[in-house]
Design a protein that fits this description.
alpha+beta, 2 domains, six-stranded antiparallel sheet, three-stranded antiparallel sheet
């Protein structure tokens, strides 16, 4: 007989739900509930690995999943399950187990399958002195060698979305929309700086005349 030890660490608020599953399985062994301040530790020893039991515990919590390894910064842990067998365990014929079970699972919040992609607003508002003006990063898509790419139009004064225009794209493309937007923003900043410098020079000429 191979004994598998279980240690479940749960939040106190979840004790009632987890206990209902334990009662449902009507185990032929005692389960010990140990109060650890804000959490409860449940310990028991079973003749089985109780895979279905753990699966049903995980199903109690919508939006959560069991993982063996945590990602960096992942701390939304609902439950921790440690399942292990003694290194001195033997099989049904008295032979020592070659690889005694020793696993830790973390029940954590599922990550969305859809990556959040921010909506890129073409309008950039620039404040200088007492003036507030809108400029625009006009992006277009194109096919390059059968691959979709994005380009920045050489026009920052007007929003060209959905209208006919003759503006030409700058001589650089990006395969990612955000990269193209970032490039457009850097060019826009240069464009605004040049306009301000030209404006200052113009005022100086007028003051001298």
């Amino acid at each position: 007989m191979i004994e598998t030890h279980f240690e479940l660490l749960i939040l106190k608020e979840d004790l009632k739900k987890v206990h209902e599953i334990i009662k449902k399985y009507d185990f032929n062994f005692p389960a010990f509930f140990i109060d650890l301040d804000e959490t409860i530790k449940i310990e028991f020893v079973s003749d089985y690995e109780e895979f279905e039991f753990l699966k049903e515990i995980g199903a109690l919590f919508d939006g959560f999943e069991f993982k063996e390894k945590l990602s960096p910064g992942e701390n939304n842990i609902k439950l921790t399950a440690h399942r292990f067998q003694s290194p001195y365990s033997t099989d049904g014929w008295g032979r020592p187990l070659e690889n005694p079970l020793n696993e830790v699972f973390f029940l954590v919040k599922k990550r969305s399958d859809r990556i959040h992609r921010p909506k890129l607003n073409p309008e950039i508002i620039v404040s200088f002195k007492q003036e507030i003006k809108s400029y625009y990063i006009n992006l277009v898509s194109d096919e390059s060698g059968g691959e979709k790419v994005f380009l920045v139009l050489n026009e920052f004064e007007n929003d060209l979305y959905g209208i006919n225009h003759e503006a030409k794209p700058l001589d650089r493309f990006s395969r990612r929309l955000m990269d193209s937007y970032s490039f457009g923003l850097s060019i826009l900043k240069q464009y605004v700086d040049e306009k301000i410098k030209a404006s200052k020079k113009g005022r100086k000429r007028k003051s001298k005349s």
